[in-house]
Amino acid sequence: MYEAYWGLTEKPFENTPNAKFFYHSHQHEEALARMLYVIHERKGAAVLTGEYGCGKTLLSRVLRNELQQEHRYQAVNIFDPRLSGLEFVQEIVYQLSGKPAAQTKIDLFHSLHNHLYTNHKNGKHCVLVIDEAQSIKNMDIFEELRLLLNFQLDDAFLLTIILLGSPELQHIIIGMPQLDQRLAVRYHIMGLNERETKEYIEHRLTMAGARRQIFTDDAYREIYIHSQGVPRRINTMCDLALLDGFSNELQMVDTRIVAEIREDFDAVRSRG
Q1: 8 Å CB contact between 198 and 166
Q2: Annotated domain spans of the chain
Q3: Structure pTM?
Q4: 260: closest CA among 221, 223, 206, 211?
Q5: Statement: 26-189 belongs to CATH 3.40.50.300
Q6: What tens digit of pLDDT does each residue of 116-133 get?
């Protein structure tokens, strides 16, 4: 609706995990580097946590793109882990083989081991990425994860597991020493700082075709203060700011527009 008005080719602040808009903050670069390290070195498992809306799912898409470009990995992606233990292993086998999985646990593990070992002999490594891992309600799945880490050679794991989730995931894992002790890497993402918030907004605008400054410097600061540097909140505020600026035929998004959006948010929260 407002793209042409601001000289954009597309909407820059959609809350979807589009890797094109990935902003390389220090934290996100460090998180990506640690996950790639665990995978490249064929270690067992890593956990990445972060506040809600901090970009974990987008980071998983960037990781997937990196692995696809290297052609040495086969990735399994679980986006909704609310499964039974059996369904969980069946989904892994299905994604690896492309065929319906066996119905019994013993047959599943035989099939999984064969596929992992065949990949290893062919110079490929399997990676299991589980997003929103804190939503796992069936604790049997964490036991399955521990068992999957038994698939290993003398000097390397046949499968690397990457767990992504909100802060409570760390507490869940700490309560499971048999899994916690097998984590090779862990990392936690916080909100962006004020400088990064401005760079994040400018980056997304540039990727969407912007050729001039659209937000005033004061507006950047207001967005940082009220979003606390959380990318999802930044996106929501900036999207509405561009819409309001378009509706009011403004040349730039200023603090007045940002303040009005904040007041609307506060009013909704108070009614809730």
Answers
A1: no
A2: 3-16+192-271, 26-189
A3: 0.88
A4: 223
A5: yes
A6: 999 999 999 999 999 999
